[in-house]
Amino acid sequence: MSALVDVTNYHVDIHRHLPGFSKIKARLINPLHPTWSLIGVSGLANPGLLVEIRATAAYPDAA
Questions:
Q1: Fewer beta carbons below 10 Å: N end or C end of the chain?
Q2: Can you tell me the distance from the alpha carbon of 40 to that of 38, in angstroms, rounded to the nearest whole number?
Q3: CA triplet 58, 21, 59: central angle to 5 degrees?
Q4: In angstroms, rounded to a whole number, what is the distance separating the alpha carbons of residues 35 and 62?
Q5: Quick one: three-class SS letters along 13-35?
Q6: What is the CA radius of gyration of the chain?
């Protein structure tokens, strides 16, 4: 998780689910990283899903 540099979340019914999601995020993610975008949507590709998360991680060169 420390290698995350950018995360985008797509939320169905964002106002209802954001408090619980934010609580879990605070427990798992270092508050100094990464950049984070939250987007409210009317639905996702799978009708039963409430959130979709896209994350990008960067690892330093081992050279």
A1: C
A2: 7
A3: 5
A4: 24
A5: CHHHHHHHHHHHHHHHCCCCCCE
A6: 13
Sequence letter at residue 11: H
The span from the CA of 26 to the CA of 61, in Å, is 28
Measure the CA angle with vertex 20, ends 38 and 45; round to 5°.
Answer: 50
Question: What's the Cα-to-Cα distance from 4 to each of 7, 13, 59, rounded to whole Å?
Answer: 7, 25, 9
What CA–CA distance (Å, rounded) separates 34 from 56? 9
10-residue stretch averages of pLDDT, the chain, 63 residues long? 89 92 87 87 93 90 64
Q: What is the DSSP secondary structure assignment for residue 3, as one 8-state letter?
A: T
